[in-house]
Amino acid sequence: MADEARDIVDWGHFEKSRSELGPGFIRILSYFKEDGVKSIGQIEQAMREQNTAALVIPAHTLKGESRQLGAEPLAKIAELIESTARFCVESHRFPDELVPEVVQLRRLFDQTIALFDKATNPLMTRAAPVGFGRKNVSNQGFGRI
Question: What's the pLDDT score for residue 122?
Answer without folding.
Answer: 76
